[in-house]
Amino acid sequence: MLKVEGISAHYGKIQALDKVSIEVEEGEIVTLIGANGAGKTTLLMSICGDPRVSEGSIHYLNQDITQQPTSKIMRSGISIVPEGRRIFARLTVEENLHMGGFFTEPRTFDERLNFVYQLFPRLKEREKQRGGTMSGGEQQMLAIARALMSQPKLLFLDEPSLGLAPIVIQQIFSIIQRLRDEGVTIFLVEQNANQALRLADRGYVLENGRVVLQDVGSKLLTNNDVIKAYLGG
Ligand code: ATP
Questions:
Q1: For a substitution probing ligand 1, which of 7, 18, 33, 36 has the most ligand atoms within 8 Å of its CB?
Q2: Residue 42 in 3-state DSSP?
Q3: Are 157 and 122 members of one domain?
Q4: Residues 9 and 48 in one domain
Q5: What is the pLDDT of residue 126?
Q6: Is 99 in the same domain as 118?
Q7: Which of 146, 219, 225, 226 could anchor a disulfide with 215, C-beta 3.0 to 4.6 Å?
Q8: Residues 38-50, mean pLDDT to the nearest whole number
Q9: Ligand 1: centre distance to CA 231 (Å)
């Protein structure tokens, strides 16, 4: 479904990605783990068209999207839940969801709204509340719901568990699993390696802009290097 081959990306003189290759098959949950500054967000943003990659290629559903504008990539069925949620704080829950469904056809809009409200009943209860006044966990739910409004085939989640209480993290991870069961392919970027790898069909480890390990999720969980570096010893 997604094939990233040997991409490099720079911010001025800083090289953030160095010949990174990853693949995501339809129906999978693929997890990318890595420390702060490893290049995880840069990889997601590069797939979405920004920053432009300096070498390599990105194919999505057999189309070359390497040089495509972000708006076109977003309309092709990829949706992103950005790091830090980035909800519209002054807009209500309902208005945030309308923003997410901006390109959704009017005849499927209500269906999508019902779908996300059924997935997150808390958001339905709070549809008139301003996004910025909600708790961190509720804001994360809203960010996921907003991304789902465009009916993505492939969903990118950038550190969805960051800063959340363990019980809320459990809820978020079980929603991710449910989305996969409903047919959404997931590319999950996480520092919470333990839980993210448990959920994953396959995983990649990114260090200093390079993929240093890749395997099925269960094997990475028992890999000594992964245990030492990402699973607390
Ligand atoms: P984190 O887990 O802390 O979010 P990350 O793995 O997502 O980290 P990136 O945010 O992709 O890492 O950063 C990779 C490298 O690129 C870092 O060295 C970072 O300082 C640099 N970088 C990221 N964004 C920019 C930017 N807009 N301008 C300059 N350098 C940047």
A1: 36
A2: helix
A3: no
A4: yes
A5: 94
A6: yes
A7: 219
A8: 92
A9: 22
145 belongs to a structural domain: no
Pocket of ligand 1 (CB under 6 A): 11, 14, 16, 34, 36-42, 83, 191
Residue-level pLDDT at 106: 80
Structural domain that includes position 105 = 87-139
Label residue 192 by pLDDT band (50, 70, 90). confident
The answer to whether 1 and 26 are in contact (CB under 8 A) is: yes
Kindly state whether residues 72 and 92 are assigned to the same domain.
Answer: no
Mention every residue, 6+ apart, whose C-beta is less than 8 A from residue 2: 22, 23, 24, 47, 58, 59, 60, 154, 185, 187
- Sign, Cα dihedral of 201, 191, 80, 55: negative
Cβ atoms 145, 100 nearer than 8 A: yes
Residues 14 and 112 in one domain: no
Query: How many domains are there within the chain?
Result: 2
Q: Do 225 and 123 belong together in one domain?
A: no
Query: What distance in angstroms lies between residue 33's CA and the mean position of ligand 1's atoms?
Result: 14
Does residue 103 carry a pLDDT above 80?
no
**What is the rounded CA–CA span in Å between residue 214 and residue 34?**
12
Residues 92 and 73 in one domain: no
* pLDDT beyond 80 at 110: yes
What is the ipTM metric for this complex?
Answer: 0.94
User: Sorting pLDDT into bands at 50, 70 and 90, what band is 191?
Assistant: confident
CA distance 81 to 100: 11
Report the nearest atom of ligand 1 relative to the CA of 209: 14
Is 147 a domain residue? no
Ligand 1 centroid to Cα of residue 16, in Å, is: 7
Using the predicted structure, report yes or no on whether residue 52 has a pLDDT greater than 80: no
Task: Over range 216-222, report the average pLDDT.
Answer: 92
Percent of the chain clearing pLDDT 70 (strictly above): 100
